[in-house]
Amino acid sequence: MAQLSDDCFAFGGPMRSLDDTAALIASRLTVVEETETVQLAIADGRVLARDLVAPLPLPPFTNSAVDGYALRGDDLPGTAEKAMPVSDRIQAGLAPDRPAAPGQAIRIFTGAPLPEGADTVYMQEDVRVDDTGRVVLPPGLKRGANVRPAGEDVAAGEVVLQAGQRMRPQDVALAAALGMTQVDVRRKIRVAIFSTGNEIVAPGNVRGPAQLFDSNRFMLMAMLARLGCETTDLGILTDDSSLIADVLSEAASGQDLILASGGVSTGEADCVKAAVESMGTLVFWRVAIKPGRPVAMGVIRGTAFIGLPGNPVASFVTFAHIARAAIFALAGARQQPAISRPVRAAFSYRKKPGRREYVRVSLRRGQDGTYEAAKFPREGAGLLSSLVQTDGLVELGEETTQVEPGQTVQFLAYSDLN
Asked: In this protein, which residues make up the domain named MoaB/Mog (predicted)?
């Protein structure tokens, strides 16, 4: 478990920018020390604990990139066609048993190793075979064509994946191509999660006339699962500071992060602040972000705590930009900022300067074929339908005060935020 000092997040002052908040998280959180070895088949999404060094070159031998005919570069045609006898046939998976002979071509197939002396391959569709069985080669091919040299992709001893890399399917494929069956990774980040509020009830339970079913906890657990976390569900806690404090005290043992939804603003019924302060240190972050300004972070007996807003859209946005950064920092993963894409706005919008805003949009193609972003027709950080019926968020920087149709804006796909 990553142990933090009670003052590791201690700061105050005016509302912080989102970039400053993410940078602070990355610099202050301690990477978990425990590692484990996992089979390559289940390594996707895990964070490498050590550099991956290639034990052999890729490809491990020089081979043909196409089906065709191999020959020595010295035997390439000059300015006219050249007919050559075919002396051998090499299939993929079989090693040649003799060198390439001068003045002779070799029938070869994709992936088959080139025999000693051969350094060029003609594609079979570029040649013809005459009545005597000789292959007729046209002029103009350069020496070394259609050949994959040994080590062209990866050199032996090269660091192919660095510690902190969050494994992707292509990374798993590279490790497999190098003959590896397992990799050393950081253990999964342990996160305890709960929702707060007398106004919410778990799905499947009886809902009172003034209550709502809890959706945030399930959304956040799904997002945590996509980040490879090991989650402990603490359920719903009522608006009782003493009860919340007891649960926090127990949860802090054996967890790397405690994640709460709701109860972190300044209302009388927002009891998380008092509960956390009674157990450790809590500094409310007045993060300059919309939706989602009420975000809290602190330390409870050495365990990091993050409190997200209760409104579902605000909870989604702040998890994607703040809690996600904290999880990467704890896992020792290189920070992976979401990649924005320029699109054309198909809406008007006004905002206050000095804060980052995220507008829910759907993508569509305009008449000229260019992607444009259409704003969800209703506002409100409590509208789950606005997340379900859109494709992502348009990110508006702190200096932006308005958007007009036709203006270029930056689009973040939901798939890049999980």
From this structure: 192-329
Give the strand pairing for 212-213 and 200-201. parallel
Q: Which residues contact 98 (CB under 8 A, 6 or more apart)?
A: 88, 115
Is the separation of the CB atoms in 317 and 300 below 8 Å?
no
Structure tokens at 107: 């029938």
Question: What is the Cα–Cα distance from 203 to 232, expressed in whole angstroms?
Answer: 18
Q: Is the pTM for the entire model greater than 0.85?
A: yes
The fraction of the chain above a pLDDT of 90, given in percent, is: 78
Q: Does residue 48 surpass a pLDDT of 80?
A: yes
pLDDT number for residue 4: 63
Per-residue model confidence as pLDDT tens digits over 381-403? 999 999 999 999 999 999 999 99
Measured between its terminal Cα atoms, the distance across the chain in Å is 24
- Cβ(340)–Cβ(392) below 8 Å: no
| Residue 241: predicted pLDDT | 87
Burial of 320: CB neighbours in 10 Å, binned 0-12, 13-18, 19+: buried
Tens of pLDDT, residue by residue over 261-290, are 987 665 544 688 788 888 888 766 678 899
- CB proximity list for 158: less than 8 A, separation 6 or greater: 53, 54
Q: How confident is the model at residue 23 (pLDDT cuts 50, 70, 90)?
A: confident
Interval 189-213 mean pLDDT: 94
User: 289-290 and 356-365 as β-strands: parallel, antiparallel, unpaired?
Assistant: parallel
